[in-house]
Design goal:
With 143 residues, this protein is of the alpha+beta class. The protein is built from four helices and five strands; from the N terminus they run ββαβαβαβα. The two termini are 29 Å apart.
């Protein structure tokens, strides 16, 4: 696995992502599968990054595949637990988050969908939101 520093062209947000190779990154980016986790922009490219300096000795510095799988499984489990204790509000997410923040709706954990522009607007208003690491199907459409 390779960790790339990525940057969205629209806002300049820098974030890390893991790929099997440079070719895999390019293929996923071309297919529209890579997006900024902060603003949702799909116009993402590799950011300048310092070379990785390995540990002293013969260690490669790369994580074993099992460790990567375990980390992803842990993230999936954490998201599952968060979803179990939050309310799905679908496309109403921006309005519900704003209403909760302003005290116009009951304070509670929610999740749903927001466009990149809506997410940026919520953050600009000081409303704490964060993207989930994995897609969330609408209730009733799960496999």
């Amino acid at each position: 696995m390779i960790i790339f520093d990525l940057r969205c062209a629209s806002q300049g947000h820098v974030f890390e992502a893991w790929f099997g190779s440079t070719e895999e990154f390019e293929a996923q980016r071309s297919a529209g599968l890579v997006a900024c986790p902060i603003c949702g922009a799909a116009d993402v490219d590799k950011a300048p990054m310092a070379p990785r300096v390995g540990a002293k000795g013969n260690a490669s510095g790369e994580l074993p595949a099992e460790a990567v799988k375990a980390a992803l499984a842990g993230m999936a489990e954490a998201q599952k637990k968060l979803l179990e204790t939050s309310e799905h509000v679908g496309d109403r997410f921006p309005d519900e988050a704003r209403a909760i923040h302003l005290g116009e709706a009951e304070a509670r954990a929610i999740h749903g969908r927001a466009s990149a522009a809506d997410a940026e607007s919520l953050r600009d208003e000081g409303i704490p939101i964060a993207p989930l690491p994995f897609d969330v199907p609408d209730p009733g459409t799960e496999n």
